[in-house]
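Following up on my earlier message about zinc ion. Here are the inputs again, as you asked, copied directly from the submission form:
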Amino acid sequence: MADYDLIVRNAKIVNDDRQIEGDIAVKDGVIAAIEPGIKGKGRREIDAAGKFVLPGGIDSHAHIEQKSGFGIMCADDFYSGTVSAAFGGTTTVIPFAAQHRGMSLRQVVKDYHEAATPKAVIDYAFHLIVTDPTPQALGQDLPALIRDGYTSFKIYMTYDAMKVSDYQMLDILALARKEGALVMVHAENHDMIQWLAHHLIEQGHGAPKFHAIAHARVAEAEATNRAISLARLVDAPMLIVHVSEIEAIETIRQAQKKGLKIYGETCPQYIALTADDMDKPGVQGAMWCCSPPPRDSAAQEAVWEGLKDGTFQTFSSDHAPYQFNEGGKIPKGDKTTFKEMANGVPGIEIRLPMLFSEGVQKGRITMQQFVALTSTNHARLYGLYPRKGTIAVGSDADLAIWDADKDVTIRWKDLHDNVGYTPYEGREIKGWPTVVVSRGRIVVEDGKLNAERGSGQFLPCASPDSSKPLGQAAPELQAMSRFGAKPLF
Ligand code: DUC
Ligand code: ZN
Ligand code: ZN
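Thanks, got it. Here's what our run produced:
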């Protein structure tokens, strides 16, 4: 009779704060013991000598089975999306339940559960995308949903179909502050992009490479600064997602230096691609288009600096999978201009290996930073810690066993998403997770999947510490209460 369901022996166990050597014993999906030379037997034992064992990755920015603002459906459903995540060492995903205008948030959440429950192979939570902050949404639906475990939401400052006004942002931030949710912001100046795009297209410059010109750096910088200013007014924490450019990074850094609760996220495309990748014949360059766009090598360096010095808390995939065809990336075929292209690149499977190879192996970040950026900080920021994001007794047994010496050439045919291409085709990677364990189940081993459809579980998120205000709203707001005005939150 076995004492444990699984024992991983002789592991170099890495958490965000230290590395130790020892064994990990798992019972009923949870880590039961961590020590050298665990006595007793496992029903299954893995010798991890020479390998690193890391907390399973958490990808807190992925679009799965989601319709874009233009109504284009993602190429990955909750099966292919989570299978692909698992093969890349990720054991928890936090995709979006996306409200489009006119939709009830309650119904949106119900629909995403119906999509995920029968298909997901790893655990998942949901952020909400809020595009329609009606009195019903702000007054009833969001407070109730936050209590039910949807404690973060993304809002857009651009896209006609998605954007909220500054006024609406303040409403949403004030609500999040009061109810204990974290607001994630897509920060780009809508009118700058529209104006540039209009003039580019009018002059016949509709090719994908012009996407990077329309989405000017200053549009990201301005919106980042404005978003942070709005957060300051109402003393609400905020996370800026998919940050790509130098000035925005510096703005986030300076806000953090002032003690504000402003967090930053970046993604593989901003360390591994540049705008030059979009410069291809015809509409081919669309395969590399995402928003904000990849910039240049100076911006890549600034992103690395932000990953190193802690300006960025999370490294997420922003997996936005669209096939390169008329139902996906290029809705009008060869006639598609950058304005109609579906926005986004796939990356859910290469996220961890790319950062491991480019970051840890090349000495840019430490193993501990890698764990923080790809797992622990996601759990902390979004209310899943310590159940997720750490290798500790009592935590879920979500583990990735890494072969740091494994050489891999990225080929789409070897990945498990449903996109049909990867923007990283042919890249050489060193290090890949060869065994992936989700709640004690070995879901990937030596290139094979061993997980049932629907075996992933929904994770309600607690109201995270990251969302707690500092208690220092702008002086004018404080003054309002002194002269007897009704408190705004
Ligand atoms: N924003 C995202 O978060 N993902 C893809 C495209 C976009 O605009
Ligand atoms: Zn976005
Ligand atoms: Zn995204």
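One observation from looking it over: The first strand starts at residue 4 and ends at 14. Hope that helps, and feel free to reply on this thread.
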